[in-house]
Amino acid sequence: MIDRLIFLDFDGVLNRVDPKGFLIRNIDWLHRLPGDQLETSLVHRVASLATNLDAQVVLSTSWRETHTMPDLIGILGRHGFPADRILGKTPRRAVRGQEIAAFLNQHPRAARLAVLDDNDRGQFDMTAVRPWLVHTDPAHGLTRGDASEASRLLIHGPVWSDPRPADVYQPSLDMRV
What is the pTM for the complete model shown? Predict the structure, then answer.
């Protein structure tokens, strides 16, 4: 059986940010709770993907460095995300693409992937997982079109099947299964 995994960034995917990194949605910063920066409609879009396609979610967001897993699960839960869809978080590495590859190598399994992220430069370089990247526009977050592309990858995309160096990808193009 081939698993389905969604690697999830928060900022620029579950919220909208302008080119300077400021949230587009107006928030009362004095009275906010952790997670108020997320937009419920965008969280629901990912939750629908995970639920409808029986996919598990791995948190690759930088929020995992400042929040505990129970806090992150609670933050997503306040926006209606089902806790049973969250598998874990990526380990810390130099760049995000390598973090995702390291997670996959530490948890060997044949999997179809969708990597939801708004960045692909510098510390967020996605070379290791580029065939699976759904690159969102941070000004719009995860759009319906992005969700459709993620769905396509999770159903028909290349399979990550063998442990490999975290900085090299060699997707299997075997679409059977």
Answer: 0.86
